[in-house]
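Cross-check.
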Amino acid sequence: MPVTVEEAGAVTPDLVEAFERLVPQLSRSSRPPTEAEVQEMVDAPGTHVLVARGEDGKLLGSLTLVIFRIPTAMRAWIEDVVVDEAGRGQGVGEALNRHALDLARSQGCKTVDLTSRPSREAANRLYQRLGFQLRETNVYRYDLDG
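Predicted model, tokenized:
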């Protein structure tokens, strides 16, 4: 299946609908973003909302790439990669990630990080195939709501 990847430049009804459909496939505990929240993401400096479309134009997946400056270099972080169940196994995730890596490289980033639950076996295989390396590190989270 031919897949095209683009950066969301405007909030459209099909983009909002796509997040309504995709977010539950990514996380059972998170609600989809509202139209205003999608607008916030698209407008945020350093945030790149990438979307993949099939040849029929239907949105099949998304990925958020955040690029930021820290004292040691330009860095990037990939978050919330999700491919619609209907598009899995067809190169959508690979196309999204390759586009994100190219964009990060073009912005002068030194590294690109991401996390993935071990239970997401196909995604983890993809990341390793693309050249991501498992790091020996601790990831900590502080819950500001709790």
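The radius of gyration is 15 Å. The chain has one domain: 4-130. Passed to J.P. for a second look.
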